[in-house]
Amino acid sequence: MKTKSKFLRSLAIFLLSSVAAFSVYADDVLLNVSFDPTRELYEDVNKHFIDSWKKKTGKGLTIQQSHGGSGKQARAVIDGLEADVVTLALAYDIDSIVNNSGAISKEWEKEFPHHSVPYYSTIVFLVRKGNPKAIKDWDDIVKPGIGVITPNPKTSGGARWNYLAAWGFAKKKYGTEAKATEFVKALYKNTSVLDTGARGSTTTFVQRGIGDVLLAWENEAELAISESKKANGGNSQLEVVYPSASILAETPVAVVEKVTAKKGTTELAKAYLNFLYTKEGQEIVAKHFFRPNDAAVLKANASKFPKINLFDVRSIEGSWAAAHKKHFADGGLFDSIYGEAKK
Amino acid sequence: MKLIFRPYSKTSFGLSLGLTIFYLSCFVIIPLSSLVFKSANLGWSGLLEVFSEDRIQKALILSFGAGGVAAIINLFVGFLFAWVLVRYDFPGKRILDSLVDLPFTLPTAVAGIALTTIYSPKGWIGQFFEPLGIKIAYTPAGIVIALVFIGFPFVVRTVQPILEELPKELEESAFCLGASRFQTFTKVILPELIPSLLTGTSMAFARGIGEYGSVVFISGNLPGKTEILPLLIVTKLEQYEYAKATGIALLMLVLSFTIMLAINFFQNRASRRLG
After folding, report:
1. Which residue range is the domain that position A196 belongs to?
2. Which of B54, B220, B237 sits opposite A75 (nearest CB)?
3. Which residue numbers delimit the ABC transmembrane type-1 domain (chain B) (predicted)?
4. Does B238 sit within 8 Å of A69, measured CB to CB?
């Protein structure tokens, strides 16, 4: 008797779980391949989008997230990771997917508003409490004796923004490329650690206590401050300093059409990315310290995002491809900086 | 065809060899030969250009240099460990014995983060060296420490069994024939151990050259100063320079293989001399 009921019970469990498994399978599944600092942002976005999708179509939806260094993520997509959408740290990485695999349309920048950039960020300084070295602007961090922490532009998307922010500032202020080159040389002379990614640099600065200033994404800096507050009972051991000018760090999105066409998720993927542009989406973006493109939402969150002079890559180097070739490719300016800085 | 069960015979040699080669092909030969094919895209001039890059040469010297220093440290420390574990009994010996394997099982990134925390200028150990002007983390010294950590079980685990099975009579007869303790050690025990010491050290060395996970955290990754070869491969990949990345990989493969062959050769000679 007992064994029979046990058998029936396990049969019921088996049937139920297979039904459950089937219903999960029947849902649409979307894979969003993104970069490191957006982990918390997309957890939030996905929750809201799934709800609105269910309301609109009555269909369930599962969204999977993949995070890592932006370049590494792009390479995974090139090598066949079946991403429906990519939301990466720089346009150059999406261009690389276009050029190396053709999985994304060449016209991707025109698919969505603002060059397919639903939100953006910038590069700010994170300094220790009380700003002991009185760091106010870019000129202060290239002075001898200041310890600067930034990741390696060869391996990190964020680090390329850091580099271009410094370069752009110097080029605009001093006018010539020679002066700008000298400026970034002085900057990298002040670094003693080049981590492979933005998170690693944050750890080096915050946990290991190395350096006087960390060049960081705005949202990464805010995250580090709120972590510090949590750890020290509401008193942050860190401060954000907004330089007089910084770079407009555009973080673009695109639909991987080759994959979505095969899976039949093209409409869904488009709806997902368009959701980022809606009022609801933009508010979530602002909540996670990325700057929203919607003027009204940005205004409503003005206290979070102090006004800062922003210049974009197009205005200093023309395009990402040109910037990459000149600065970061093998034999580029960054290599020559280290070739000379170490002597 | 009749299958006859003959214990310990070579009946199924063909099948076993076939399976062995099949597995070896799937997991070693084909993946490694793809390295050769991918870097062939560069051509000889391209390869030479990669190898003559200043950064790569510096990284090469660093990777092999730090790996070599760490292997030599491991040779002595590992031997001492094996000696203590085999020759003495003390409380907690079992725990110590299993602790030796920890670097094998631990994800290397964990080791890297832990070592960096301790040896950084604000860390437990690093803070005592900082006032003396000695920097450990973010210098080649830090790299050596990471490589010692991940390499040292190799020496212990290759020497330990040989030491255990060394017949007692050898030392007793040496003693009876009037040898001093030092003579017994250098003339009787050490020659027996040299092949396994060589194997262990070379394995620690080989592991050290290719180590990535633990080193990237503690090295500081400054080009030309503390940048290791595996990081350069990652750097090239990050720029979609697939051919260059595999070119460096090929260089490492050839160098490691040559070193392993040489060590094998010496080891064979050493064991033959023992007879």
Report:
1. 123-247+312-341
2. B237
3. 60-263
4. yes
Residue B171 touches partner A, C-beta closer than 8 Å: no
| ipTM higher than the 0.90 cut | no
Instruction: Please tell me if residue B141 touches chain A, with a CB cutoff of 8 Å.
Output: no
Q: Which of residues 311-330 of A touch B (CB under 8 A)?
A: 328-330
Which of these, A26, A109, A34, A28, lies nearest to A65 by C-alpha position?
A34
Tell me if chain A has a CB within 8 Å of the CB of B55. yes
In a mutagenesis test of the B interface, which of A148, A208, A325 is the best target, namely the one with the most B β-carbons within 10 Å? A208
Radius of gyration from C-alpha coordinates of chain B: 23
Model pLDDT, residue B53? 84
Taking domain B49-272, whether its CATH number is 1.10.3720.10 is answered by yes
Quick check: B223 and A338 CB within 8 A?
yes
Place of tokens 């370049």: A71
- The reply to whether B231 touches chain A by the CB within 8 Å rule is yes
pLDDT digits (tens, 9 = 90+) for B186-198: 988 998 898 899 9
Say if residue A146 is in the same domain as residue A286. Answer: no
Residue B235 contacts A, CB cutoff 8 Å:
yes
- Domain harbouring A111, CATH code: 3.40.190.10
Interface touch B240/A207, C-beta < 8 Å = no
| Whether the predicted pLDDT of A342 surpasses 50 | no
CA distance A82 to chain B (A): 19
Q: What is the mean pLDDT of chain B?
A: 88
CB B89: neighbour CB atoms within 10 A? Answer: 6
d(CA B36, CA B51): 15
Q: What SS3 class is residue B52?
A: coil
* Cα distances (Å, whole numbers) of residue A229 to A163, A232, A301: 29, 5, 21
The answer to whether the Cβ–Cβ distance between B234 and A155 falls below 8 Å is yes
For B132-183, the pLDDT digits (tens) are 888 898 899 999 999 999 998 999 999 999 999 998 888 889 989 998 989 9
> Which of the residue ranges A31-45, B7-21, B99-113 would you say has the lowest mean pLDDT?
B7-21
- Write the burial class of residue B203 (CB in 10 Å: 0-12 exposed, 13-18 middle, 19+ buried): buried
Measuring CA to CA, how many Å separate B155 from each of A14, A179, B80, B146, B159?
51, 54, 10, 16, 6
Distance of CA A73 to the CA centre of its chain: 12
Query: What's the token pair of residue B36?
Result: 């050769």
Total domains in chain A come to: 2
Whether pTM > 0.95 for this model: the answer is: no
Does A152 contact B237 at a Cβ distance shorter than 8 Å? no
Residues A210 and A97 in one domain: no
* Record: contact B222-A342, CB cut-off 8 A: yes
